[in-house]
Amino acid sequence: MQSANHTDNADFDEIGKFTKLADEWWDRMGAFKSLHDINPLRLNWIEDRVSEHYGSSLVDKTVVDIGCGGGILAHSMAVRGADVLGIDLGEANLKAASIHAAKTGMQKLQFRCVPAETLAQEEPEQYDVVSCMEMLEHVPDPAAIVQACYDLLKPGGVCVMSTINRNPKSYLFAIIGAEYVLNLVDKGTHDYQKFITPAELDQMAMQAGFCRFDMTGLHYNPITKHYWLSNSNVDVNYMMAFVKPQAKSLADMSDANRGDHG
């Protein structure tokens, strides 16, 4: 685990919300129980999108998981055969992730304390897959993270993101329900003003250069304690999948230039 200077695109109050609970990342009945519960759903959705695009699974894909926390998703992608780098700005989170990886003997998994923007400058276009889950609503400038995701991807690569919609229903479900009624996450975990509508995330992604190819909503029934995905409802939690377009070949660019000049 390497250290790096933090950028201005970090809210240390937000980081502190998660690092103070670092010892609970791998307690499946602890503060992060809901992340463990939804992880199979999001993992399978991610692998399905990767398979749909590449025609093959996560096996041997190079993946960077931005805002990896204690490594729940990063670890599961490594179990599926990907070579995964998890990055986060919470050093206590990364320590918990690294300890768990060592205990389980996971060789295809590494962690770094480095901002996404910095990594994108160091390793541009080095990854087949970029994931950024449950993170965009916790930073001052989510568009800069989206741009870093684009810059980290190889041409033709797949990016998956998740966040929370901003509307009265999401306030009721994600804050009142999840934090105060059901205690699915700690009180104060989310700030409604930082929630991001699908249209806003779509716009950020298009400005970065992405093409969206899928979107789905994540839902929870507190009575049956059942989680499921629905493409027809993205009112609260949702995930989007994007592709970085393939770069034009030199031959294509040459043909286009000849065409431009008659």
Give average pLDDT, whole number. 89
- Helix % is 40-55%
Secondary structure category? alpha/beta
| CATH class group | Alpha Beta
Strand order of the largest sheet: 3-2-1-4-5-8-6-7
Please name the CATH topology. Answer: Rossmann fold
**Can you tell me the residue ranges where pLDDT is under 50 for at least 5 consecutive residues?**
1-6, 249-262
Main beta sheet: strand number and arrangement? Answer: 8 strands, mixed
What is the general shape? globular
Number of strands: 8
Please, how many helices?
Answer: 9
Strand/helix succession: HHEHEHEHEHEHHEEEH
Family: Belongs to the methyltransferase superfamily. UbiG/COQ3 family.
EC number: 2.1.1.222, 2.1.1.64
Function: O-methyltransferase that catalyzes the 2 O-methylation steps in the ubiquinone biosynthetic pathway.
Protein name: Ubiquinone biosynthesis O-methyltransferase
Structure description:
The protein is an alpha/beta fold and 262 residues long. The protein has one domain: Rossmann fold, CATH 3.40.50. Helix 2 packs across helix 3 and helix 5 (116-122) packs parallel to helix 6. The chain has helices at residues 12-19, 33-54, 72-79, 91-104, 116-122, 142-152, 168-181, 198-208, 250-260, and strands spanning 62-66, 83-88, 109-113, 127-133, 153-164, 211-221, 226-230, 237-243. It is built from 9 helices and 8 strands. The longest helix has 22 residues, at 33-54. The radius of gyration is 18 Å and the shape is globular. The termini are far apart. The chain has an 8-stranded mixed β-sheet with strand order 3-2-1-4-5-8-6-7. Strand 6 and strand 7 (226-230) form a beta hairpin. Residues 1-6 and 249-262 have low confidence and may be disordered. S-adenosyl-L-methionine binds at residues 42, 67, 88, 133. Its EC number is 2.1.1.222, 2.1.1.64.
